[in-house]
């Protein structure tokens, strides 16, 4: 356990609802506000995920908090899980997993999930969250909490207990078809290192798809004398648009 942080244990409750049965007409209530259709409860599809996390964090320990982008990614993953078989039986890797919430959901349907991050405190908390949810995870699913430091050498070191330990694990990593990451774009040197790692991961093994959720943060910059989203601009420099332009 990590000693110098105070943990808040949060419960995230997910319920499934059937989109096809939503009324299409929009109606208004007595005050003229939209009367929105409410989700119907399907108790058999309901499950709780328990996450141990911090409410605030310092930069070196940002992974002890659950960030908004992680919740957005959870919604997306849940939608896919309940409306398709796209994630069934796959190998998935979460980068900069932090508390590992998205991975916990993926582990309900995937064959193998790698929760990867950097630093002992983050990885220990992540492992603790996997343990907290062990009853939720199918016994046939393999869940690995592993160090994958974007700034470190490649392939991931095997001399440390928390890195990719064996050749067979590394082979399994190559079989990953899904990469997910949330709120990993906030410092340009980390963005460079992340894309370097993504390039390496994606050039090994089978074809992979990355789903990345991020917050476009605006700050006042002395250099620009303006409110700018420099972190987002750095990210965009790595992404090609449909016409092939960066
Ligand atoms: C803002 S947190 C996001 C955590 C989680 N994905 C979420 O959204 O709740 C950024 C994550 O990137 C991880 N990270 C930072 N530097 C890293 C590095 N060099 N290699 C791997 N992960 C790193 C942090 O430890 C942290 O977990």
UniProtKB/TrEMBL annotation:
Instruction: Spell out the molecular function terms from Gene Ontology.
Output: protein methyltransferase activity
Q: Name one GO cellular component term.
A: nucleus
- InterPro entries from the UniProt entry: Methyltransf_16 (IPR019410), METTL22 (IPR038899), SAM-dependent_MTases_sf (IPR029063)
Which domain of life does the protein's organism represent?
Eukaryota
Question: What protein am I looking at?
Answer: Methyltransferase-like protein 22
Q: Which organism is it from?
A: Ambrosia artemisiifolia
């Amino acid at each position: 356990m990590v000693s110098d942080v105070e943990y808040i244990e949060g419960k995230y409750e997910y319920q499934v609802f059937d989109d096809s049965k939503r009324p299409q007409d929009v109606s208004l209530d007595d005050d003229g506000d939209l009367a929105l259709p409410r989700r119907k409860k399907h108790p058999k599809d309901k499950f709780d995920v328990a996450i141990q996390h911090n409410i605030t964090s310092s930069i070196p320990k940002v992974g002890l908090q659950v960030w908004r982008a992680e919740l957005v990614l959870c919604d997306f993953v849940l939608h896919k899980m309940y409306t398709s078989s796209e994630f069934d039986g796959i190998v998935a890797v979460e980068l900069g997993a932090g508390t590992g919430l998205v991975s916990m959901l993926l582990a309900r349907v995937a064959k193998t999930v790698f929760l990867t991050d950097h630093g002992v405190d983050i990885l220990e908390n992540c492992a603790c969250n996997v343990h907290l949810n062990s009853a939720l995870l199918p016994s046939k699913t393999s869940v690995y909490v592993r160090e994958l430091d974007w700034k470190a050498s490649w392939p991931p070191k095997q001399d440390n207990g928390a890195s990719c330990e064996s050749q067979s694990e590394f082979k399994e990593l190559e079989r990953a078809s899904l990469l997910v990451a949330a709120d990993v774009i906030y410092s340009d040197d980390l963005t460079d290192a992340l894309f370097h790692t993504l390039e390496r991961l994606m050039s090994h093994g089978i074809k992979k798809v990355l789903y990345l959720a991020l917050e476009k943060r605006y700050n006042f910059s002395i250099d620009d004398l303006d409110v700018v989203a420099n972190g987002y601009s750095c990210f965009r420099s790595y992404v090609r648009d449909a016409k092939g332009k960066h």
